[in-house]
Amino acid sequence: MSDASTSPLSGLGTLDRRTLREQILTRLRDAVSTGELAPGTHLAEIELSASLGVSRGTLREALRHLQQEGLLVSDQRGRLTVRVVTEREVRDIFTVRYGLEALAFEEIARLEDRSPVERRIRAALDALERADGFADRVRADLDLHETIIDASGNETLLQSWRHVSGLARAALTAGGAEAAMTNMAVERHTPLVDLVASGDADAGRAFLRQHMDEAADKLVARMREQH
């Protein structure tokens, strides 16, 4: 068994007790996004708890949460590993994302005053533009899309999104950093502001369909190049 110094997360440092669970979740999500924890990697609790400076019980709670999100899966021996997504799963995940966000857009279009939603999306776009580094960009991109869901005011829709957020992260990075960065470009998302302002649900759905289909196509093409 390797010690903490050889753990894939050994360079991340230890955590303080403030918002400990969220810090662990952020660290692990970022490590998966950047490839520090590559698809198929087995997560050994002893090594991870030592490298993060937390108890195994605390870590186990975070790992269960990531499993519920779909970012981690249990192998035949019951060990947790980082999800490996297939081409079909990438397309399926982006189809589900379209469905959730299209429903959210319909709810938003019904609002009498959509200006607060416009401001939230502008702020999320600004955060995406300011994101420094790949992990930050992934986080900002997913936050932007969650903002659309949350702005609908539909709590069930939001919970559905959060249930697949790990799958969304896995799919977003499945084709490597270059394809992901192309999909996360700010200019691909800027039309959202005007679409919200217009309240045109049909136009919003059409944009989201094209947005998700193009993203899935790019990722699948890159995945095929890698094999």
Q: How does this model look, in words?
A:
With 227 residues, this protein is mainly alpha-helical. The protein has 2 domains: 4-82, Winged helix-like DNA-binding domain superfamily/Winged helix DNA-binding domain (Arc Repressor Mutant, subunit A); 87-226, Four Helix Bundle (Hemerythrin (Met), subunit A) (Up-down Bundle), CATH 1.20.120. 67% of the residues lie in helices and 3% in strands. It has helices at 20-34, 45-52, 56-69, 87-109, 115-130, 134-151, 155-163, 165-172, 177-183, 191-198, 201-226, and strands at residues 72-74, 80-82. Strands 1-2 form a two-stranded antiparallel ribbon. The two termini are 31 Å apart. GO terms for molecular function: DNA binding; DNA-binding transcription factor activity. Residues 18-85 form the HTH gntR-type domain. InterPro entries: GntR_C, TF_FadR/GntR_C, Tscrpt_reg_HTH_GntR, WH-like_DNA-bd_sf, WH_DNA-bd_sf. Keywords: DNA-binding, Transcription, Transcription regulation. It comes from Neobacillus citreus.
